[in-house]
Amino acid sequence: MNSKSNMNKYHLGENSGEKVYSIVNWQVTPEGAVNQVEVGTFSSSLPPDQALVVNSSFVVWPRGELQVPRSMCSESCSAGFRKASIRGQPLCCFECVPCQQGEISNQSDSANCFRCLWNQWPNDQRSSCIPKTVEFLSYEDALGAALAAASIISAFTPTIILWLFNCYKHTPIVKANNYSLSCLLLVSLSLCFLCSLGFIGYPQPEKCLLRQVSFGLVFTLCISCILAKTIMVVFAFMATKPGSDLKKWTTLRVSYTIISACFLLQLILCIIWMYLASPFPQYNTETKPGIIIIDCNEGSPAAFWTMLGYLFLLASISFIVAFLARRLPDSFNEAQFITFSMLAFLSVWISYIPASLSAQGKYTVAMEIFAILASSWALVICMFLPKCFIILFRPDMNSKEYLMKKEKH
Fold first, then answer.
1. From the CB of residue 161, how many other CB atoms can be counted at a distance below 10 Å?
2. 133-135 and 291-297 beta bridge pairing
3. What CATH class is the domain 135-408?
4. Which of 296, 301, 299 is nearest to 282 (CA)?
5. DSSP letters spanning 78-95
6. At CB < 8 A and 24+ separation, what contacts does 22-29 make?
7. pLDDT by residue (tens digit) across 242-282?
8. CB-based burial, 266-295: b 16+ in 10 Å, e otherwise
9. Partners of residue 42 on adjacent β-strands
């Protein structure tokens, strides 16, 4: 207890080294007289917790107040705030400023705020650090579970169509559309649907390393089959012209050579990508405050977009060739179906580019999965739905008589 104006300490006496002081309070009477009222004592011989004895009920402060006057002109700052001096005011006058984003103060009247660790974040009061929320597209997440279910269910569709084609492989519509290439295309479409599962779940190093590579290779196989079918349609028509020697180019060996060459080039690009700058998991703490986004860093964005660009090139070539051959006189001319399928495929992936750049966190991965599923379904519907409809519901169109009648017409 201390008061500069009305509290003094008087020495009473010393005995064998003992020092005892009397604490008095100067009190001004209404008449203007000053009375010295003893309000406590201090003894040096007693234990520290008993040395000072003060009866605060006897103390009268200036202006007749009975409570201890405040020695500070500002309220105390609670946890989560820091003291900031006010220009032109004494040090006892300050303002309480909230800690900045990512910082805390865990005690009252703190002069500074402290930043949390990289994997922690302040609580709502900014008085302590708590672990950050971890975000990735998992199977437990509703979005991840829905996409995984859609991928698995979708993968059965090409399998069912493959079974249907195998049952009707001796019919004209299946023969005219190259049964072997159609089977290979259906197998690759099933793999296209299933490769999206590699994007769901915790981004392990092995998953980051393989998911984009598997996506690029299976889609290259798929588009290469369509490109081979497109070229075979053109060669088959041109081989029917008198004096043409293109008949030898309409064999399966040529088709498989085209597919192998396209696939091998994509494989070389992926191997170079993996060797120079392979993808790896990363912890992203900058995109969303308070959340750790665990995703895969593609290692080399240029390599990733080169892979997509190569797919875009194959699809564009298939689209151009099929568009030019769409009016060839053939009863089961696939060029029209290939034109629509490639147009849908290119539209999906062109739309994916701005959508992926605007999405954040797990929604970026979800956008790529959606693009994989949408483009695969576009190929299934445009390439095989009309044929399945004829096989199941219009058997009269799947006959030699109908074929000969249409060619004659």
1. 23
2. parallel
3. mainly alpha
4. 296
5. -TTEEEEE-TTS-TT-EE
6. 23/54, 25/58, 25/59, 25/60, 27/60
7. 555 666 666 778 889 999 999 999 999 999 999 999 999 99
8. beebbeebbeebbbebeeebeeeeeebbbb
9. 21, 52
Contacts of 11 (CB under 8 A, 6+ apart): 19, 21, 22
Domain ranges across the chain: 7-64, 81-131, 135-408
Quote the tokens at residue 105.
Answer: 């103060």
Judge whether 346 and 127 are in contact, CB under 8 Å: no
CA 197: distance to chain centroid? 16
C-alpha–C-alpha distance, residues 250 and 236, integer Å: 6
- HSE (side-chain half, CA atoms, 13 Å) at 25: 20
Say if residues 124 and 353 touch (Cβ distance below 8 Å).
no
Report which residue type is found at 366. Answer: A
Q: Provide the angle, in degrees to the nearest 10, between the axes of the packed helices 301-324 and 252-277.
A: 160
Q: Whole-prediction pTM value? A: 0.74
- pLDDT tens column, 205-248: 999 988 999 999 999 999 999 998 888 877 777 666 655 566 66
